[in-house]
Target: N-acetylglucosamine-6-sulfatase
Amino acid sequence: MGGSRHPRALWWALLVLLAEGRADAAAGGRGRSNIILILADDQDVALGGMTPMKKTQLLIGQAGASFANAFAVTPLCCPSRSSILTGSYPHNHLVRNNSLEGNCSSPAWQKFQEPYTFPVYLQKQGYQTFFAGKYLNQYGDPKAGGVQHVPMGWTYWLGLVGNSKYYNYTLSANGREEKHGALYEEDYLTDLITNRSLAFLQKFSRTPFLIVLSPPAAHSPWTAAPHYKSAYRTITAPRDGSFNVHGKDKHWLLRQAKTPMSNTSIQFLDNVFKARWQTLLSVDDMVEKVLDELKALDLLGSTYVFYTSDHGYHTGQFSLPIDKRQLYEFDIRVPLLVRGPGIKPNQTYLEPVLNIDLGPTFLDIAGLNMSQSPMDGQSFLPLLVNKEQRDGWRSDFLVEYTGEGCTGKDPQCPTLGPGVSQCFPDCVCEDAFNNTYACVRTLRPHDFQYCEFADTQNFVEFYNLTSDPHQLLNVAKSVDPSLLEQMNQRLIKFQACAGVSCHF
Ligand SMILES: *[C@@H]1O[C@H](CO)[C@@H](O)[C@H](O)[C@H]1NC(C)=O
Ligand SMILES: *[C@@H]1O[C@H](CO)[C@@H](O)[C@H](O)[C@H]1NC(C)=O
Ligand SMILES: *[C@@H]1O[C@H](CO)[C@@H](O)[C@H](O)[C@H]1NC(C)=O
Ligand SMILES: *[C@@H]1O[C@H](CO)[C@@H](O)[C@H](O)[C@H]1NC(C)=O
Ligand SMILES: *[C@@H]1O[C@H](CO)[C@@H](O)[C@H](O)[C@H]1NC(C)=O
Ligand SMILES: *[C@@H]1O[C@H](CO)[C@@H](O)[C@H](O)[C@H]1NC(C)=O
Ligand SMILES: *[C@@H]1O[C@H](CO)[C@@H](O)[C@H](O)[C@H]1NC(C)=O
Ligand SMILES: *[C@@H]1O[C@H](CO)[C@@H](O)[C@H](O)[C@H]1NC(C)=O
Ligand SMILES: *[C@@H]1O[C@H](CO)[C@@H](O)[C@H](O)[C@H]1NC(C)=O
Model:
């Protein structure tokens, strides 16, 4: 990493050496497995989001386990990332949206939630912890401690200020501001995260370690590396079962979408789809380089590597051009691949696992007793290393979301009233204050989704995914009322659950 051409890298090395001295003071934990989490941004699995990730599928999926039913409990960056960090549903970590007022990286989050995030537990267990990339959307805001705030639990911290970017961004390198321009060789964020993680592994790592790598891909502004800008020249977004279909029996926000979409919307979303895949190619390279380095250091056999995303994404489903924030499969399903000690190659699991299960799984790997943490999720390590545990696994879970809106009118869309947001392109809105909902998603013995909205209609949606995998038909009005009643009771219990009471 040295060389006089990279003075910033030297600074980083110095800071890491200083931090190393502090970390050595922490005792215990030796002999436990290392953990690496690679967390993509906005990467769907339902619309082929893993297709560009050939090396990742081979090196993690085929070398280990793939979860065919992995879900985010909330489909928006900051609440979902807060769920990953705390292992808890949003009604317990209280991060409602992507803004400071909604507790995204807010002073209240730092005081009341950050002390219970998984790196804190692992560091206490003697793990050396390393973070690089996007943390929470408001990280680094002057009203929340600026770049000087290094979240608890991290020995080495390289946090991106604000939301995903590929160039022209600011990092906090262990609390010190590090500004970057737009030169591919020095600044492309996905590659920079890869390079810093390799340097950490080569020069500073001491086992056991936890590494979290959080690249900006496939989030907007979708800037690919120069050598990937010509990839997927002819690809378009999939015209799947719900593409350009009007959500006529769905809640208000879906009904305001325009069907058929305008040609400009379709062109726009096709370009976004292509650019998303191009940005993911650099994440695929990251996975290969990190695994090559583990192999070179003889650490492959003692390291668990997890690959996932914060939530899904849509491009044209139900005539919503681009975004996440919806309760449907494309937005809540995520990729989840794991390799590591005791995991047999090429296993596919059908059990529903959640983003809130990652924290408990990491604690389990570190040998911690879960009942001493307030996390709502459950460790899926027993599923991976001991098949007998499979029978008692959960069959349903909660999805909850608080809609974002604007209090004023959108100047670009004078015909729209207040209360909506993300009305782009063509003034079709992707969110609204009343896109606030809670759902029970159950996979066994029936494949159902039941959702209640906090809007003026107390709108209800119900899908039978066995007969209707694309969720085209809301059967809330025709299904047996006693079934709705059962689902409503289940939802009420979930919305009040905390810790072990979420495991019923
Ligand atoms: C933000 O978090 C604090 C403390 O955790 C809580 O008191 C507050 O109600 C939360 N805000 C919202 C909007 O949920
Ligand atoms: C980065 O910032 C420079 C200077 O403001 C600007 O000219 C350039 O277009 C920006 N590049 C990107 C990719 O944002
Ligand atoms: C990452 O390292 C590679 C190989 O040394 C180098 O070619 C590339 O320019 C580096 N990129 C960044 C953003 O540091
Ligand atoms: C939109 O695209 C369709 C199919 O490509 C084409 O038939 C139609 O003429 C286009 N409409 C406009 C207004 O450009
Ligand atoms: C995993 O399964 C695929 C498809 O069945 C096969 O092509 C591949 O060789 C297998 N890989 C390993 C590592 O067993
Ligand atoms: C975990 O802690 C609880 C409560 O302190 C205790 O009852 C339980 O036996 C512990 N479990 C293990 C596996 O140590
Ligand atoms: C985020 O949540 C806070 C607290 O509920 C709310 O005041 C704010 O309006 C929300 N922001 C958006 C963009 O919806
Ligand atoms: C949802 O909010 C929008 C924007 O404020 C409003 O126009 C609409 O009537 C609301 N719909 C329901 C069902 O609450
Ligand atoms: C769901 O669909 C399956 C397959 O068509 C059907 O057998 C089952 O009765 C349906 N369940 C409900 C509650 O409609």
